[in-house]
Amino acid sequence: MGHDIRWDNEDRTVVLQAYTEGATKDDLYYLAQESARMLKSIDHTVHLIIDERNIDLVLNSADMTYLEKLTPTNQGAVVMIVSPSKLMYKTVVQQLGKRLGPNAFALPFFAESVEQAWTFLQSAFEVRYTSEAET
Predict the structure, then answer these.
(1) Using an 8 Å Cβ cutoff, are 121 and 14 in contact?
(2) What domains can you pick out in the chain, each with its CATH number?
(3) Res 51: pLDDT
(4) What is the number of other CB atoms lying within 10 angstroms of the CB of residue 2?
(5) Strands 14-19 and 3-7
(6) Coil vs helix vs strand at 20
(7) Which of 9, 87, 91, 107 is deepest in the core (most CB within 10 A)?
(8) pLDDT tens across 65-91, in order?
(9) How far is Cα 56 from Cα 35, in angstroms, rounded to an integer?
(10) Residue 75, H or E segment
(11) What is the dihedral of CA 114, 118, 123, 129, to 10 degrees?
């Protein structure tokens, strides 16, 4: 199991997905399914933080179409945590993804750390965090 997924704040407005050591494309599919299940259990908008620093994924058109089919209507922004050296590649993939999966790839943002993602979501979308949820 090369992944972790959980609610990231008490308000359940953010889901944190993280790829851990040894993650594979199977983990992508599992996280997409579990994330969709979690979002569908809530009526309000839910943003995603996806920590991709421990995986090198190459998404193909079938992957993008699959992600699009799973995307709940209440999915908000998706903040991907990537290393600076992979930012250009991820930006190109997101542009292609918008054509094949306009909902799944609608609001992509990038950060270098979970803390940077928290700060962005708090300022851009008024997401609330308490100190207990951040630990």
Answers:
(1) yes
(2) 3-125 (3.30.750)
(3) 98
(4) 17
(5) antiparallel
(6) coil
(7) 9
(8) 999 999 999 999 999 999 999 999 989
(9) 20
(10) strand 75-81
(11) -170
